[in-house]
Amino acid sequence: QEEPELVSAIYGRGIAYGKKGLHDMKNAELALFELSRVISLEPDHPEVFEQRAEILSPLGRISEALSDLTKAIQLQPSARLYRHRGTLYFISEDYATAHEDFQRSLELNKNQPIAMLYKGLTFFHRGLLKEAIESFKEALKQKADFIDAYKSLGQAYRELGNFDAAAESFQKALLLNQNHVQTLQLKGMMLYHHGSLDEALKNFKRCLQLEPYNEVCQYMKGLSHVAMGQFYEGIKAQTKVMLNDPLPGQKASPEYLKVKYLREYSRYLHAHLDTPLTEYNTDIDLPGNFKDHWAKNLPFLIENYEEQPGLQPHIKDVLFQNFESYKPDVQELICVADHLGSMMQYETPGFLPNKRIHRAMGLATLEVMQAVQRTWANSKVRMNGKTRLMQWRDMFDIAVKWRRIADPDQPVLWLDQMPARSLSRGFNNHINLIRGQVINMRYLEYFEKILHFIKDRILVYHGANNPKGLLEVREALEKVHKVEDLLPIMKFNSKTRDGFTVNTKVPSLKDQGKEYDGFTITITGDKVGNILFSVETQTTEERTQLYHAEIDALYKDLTAKGKILILSAELGEVDAVCNLILSLVYYFYNLMPLSRGSSVIAYSVIMGALMASGKEVSGKIPKGKASIKISKYINSLVDFEAMTAPGSEAFSKIARSWMNLKSISPSYKSLPSVSETFPTLRTMIEVLNTDSSHCLKKTIVVV
What we know:
It is a single chain. The chain has about 700 residues and is α+β, with helices and mostly antiparallel strands. Among the domains are: about 210-320, no CATH class; about 330-410 and about 545-700, Orthogonal Bundle (Fic-like fold), CATH 1.10.3290.20; about 425-530, no CATH class. It has 33 helices and 9 strands. Strands 4-3-7-6-5 form a 5-stranded antiparallel β-sheet. It holds the Pfam family TPR_8.
């Protein structure tokens, strides 16, 4: 037993080394050595373990630091120790355990705004937004000028899709510190995704004054400029991000990975600002490998890539158009489009309303309506430099065109137009519903439905492969109410022990009795908090051809019936046309033929084609649990409803139950032609930029 003075001298040296600089590995090692000597001499001092944990964690030795803190807690639990350990669990993304520690810390000392903030963040990262908001508000009660709590509160409201509450929280953070870069960045991002690009730009510029090398703000500044048609400024900002090469061994930021694609695409858009949209096709023009890499979010390493030409000085940037400068009938067109677009808003947590996308998709809906009416009246359309009768893809391409220009950040590309090599390997559309402890809010209300579907499939599987154990499996399934309840059932069969996959089937209308692959649900994991629950569609060439044949047949039928409908308005005909439109889109949803944006594109085609048949959607996308069975149709995601419906008839039924179709008002007939009013990218960007707050005052919206 060494003398106590000696122990405290060693302890003092250990702390001194620790303080001298953790950046210095040598000092850190010396400190660890001295502290470990103290522990071997006197193993019952909690502060020595805590001290050692403080040196271990910055070195990335988290599990050792955790076991030291656990020892310290066993010796003498305190609010500080629990908070410290909770923080380390939080860094390790073990949010459930971290939550327990923050909770215990707060029970021992309730006045700890930082522990309260962290407790909120453990909720936030698990998708439990309402609980997170409560905790952030608690933290603000304890510390009124807590900037980080306002920032996190703003993020939680943004994730919920509550724009006003989020804006207010960000505003409060900025009143406390107008130079709070993170808040400026988050507020700018939110404004961009709300469709307020001008406002967003102000935040990104302010952010860059304070932090000239902030990659996110620099990238978003470039993106906002380009989306508004200011290509010179936009490309300047993008080039700055490109110069920010990651150091060897450093991971490239998402912005750095995306910016080269955005810059090439921006140059392409600028060169085509004044070319009539009917004369070219983006999917054909952009190089195959470029599209493939962009859609898959891969690093920009493309062999023999020929860069898009630089900006040509004779093509001027897009100028701001005053709403009043449009003729009255065009003003009305814009107001009607805004109204139609707002009908597409998902009233579900996680979807921020985006005014710009609303306007674009409202105009797309009207353009689809006008094009379908022309086709049924035997008129041709002009597409990709050819004049011909409209095909089903042309109808979707109208909506693709508007969705693309509304947010140039996202590659909205036809997957079957990708290079053959990438298609033969298959293209995945992947959505994580649960990853570890992180739950995807947007799809929460679908879990029930998917779970129900999985239970059915498990019974079928055991019925075929394990008839003896069927009763046991059935009893076990009755206890399944959450995804994690499936884990013990996976153990019933050695094949599914580590996880299993379930495929949905899509019945053919063309060949009765035939079924196609829908999408794949995968569950893997061994315990709660370690689950991966995901959904994906695998787009292969063969699958694409089967779906195309189905859609071709329906479109042919639809065109024939539409032509009859235009001549005679019998009720039975309208009904048949409605069902054909919904069936056609049912296959489109299950095919998921675009790299992004399939849902809103399909939805505007449904609305536009229905309007051509004389029917208008008057039901706002429903929300709320009461109607979950029928009307979840688009409350959260139309595509999910189509994927989980047992067939196209069931899908039509669900859709019609909330669409509340009524006869269309005759005033739609008198609206000017969308494709003639906005014949170029320049005119499209102008109309998306124009401020239409006047619409509300005039309310000339077609009622």
